[in-house]
Amino acid sequence: MRAIVVTEPGPPSSLKVTDDAPRPERAEKNEVLVRVVGAGVNPVDWKIRAGGLPAVLPQIPGGDLSGVVVEGDETGKFKEGDRVFALTDGFSWTTQTEGCYAEFCAAPAASFAPAPTSVPLVDAAAVPLVSLTAWQMLSHAPDEAIKGKRVLVHAGAGGVGHVGRLLFFSSLVLFRSTASFLVSFFLSFRFVFEMRPIMDFET
Question: How many CB atoms lie within 10 A of CB 163?
Fold first, then answer.
């Protein structure tokens, strides 16, 4: 299997491409095997690569993915051919869990969701980590902490920030962010109309 591997901490050139990485297998009945179409790059990934986190190496990095199911889980949640995206444990630096910078990736079915049909499948790989982080910011906050109050979203043009803005907007929560006026104006329209179909948390 073709994959990108971190064998030792270093600059981007320390990422090595190999054609003989072992293809993962479903280790548990609840796992899904996916052919990877897209893989997201998050700060935790380059921190592992650069040695900023005490990762167990060698490791195939990457936590965000989108792809097509090759082998579904035995519970029947996903079946062969399903389009999915996921946040997997591939970003872990405390275990040697293999990530998704590879042709195939296996992970628990609970990590996956049906991929949005409103965007190309490869683009869906950029959604999971930032969206789940922003969603937790809103959903885990006690009602009394935000109901009827103004919310400040730092770095409103960043990955988590722009999704947070969308979630607060769709929840009718008043918010401010530290993005510039022009960026705020752009995001307020673009992401409401282009990103809303992605944010289907019912699935």
Answer: 25
Give SS3 for 75: coil
Closest to 58 in 3D by CA, of 108, 14, 107? 14
Has this prediction a pTM greater than 0.85? no
Structure tokens at 199: 């944010």
Sign of CA dihedral 136, 140, 143, 148: negative
Phi/psi-derived region of residue 40, left when phi > 0, alpha when psi is between -120 and 50, beta in every other case: beta
* Other Cβ atoms within 10 Å of 35 Cβ, number: 13
Residue 105: name the closest of 134, 155, 56, 67 by CA: 67
Domains and CATH numbers, the chain: 3-119 (3.90.180.10), 127-198 (3.40.50.720)
Q: What is the pLDDT of residues 148-201, one digit of tens each?
A: 666 677 776 677 877 777 776 655 444 444 455 555 555 554 444 444 444 443
Contact 98, 49 (CB under 8 A): no
Please list the alpha-helical segments (H only) found in the chain.
Answer: 43-50, 128-139, 143-146, 159-170, 181-194
Structure tokens at 125: 């790989």
Residue listed under structure tokens 């167990």? 56
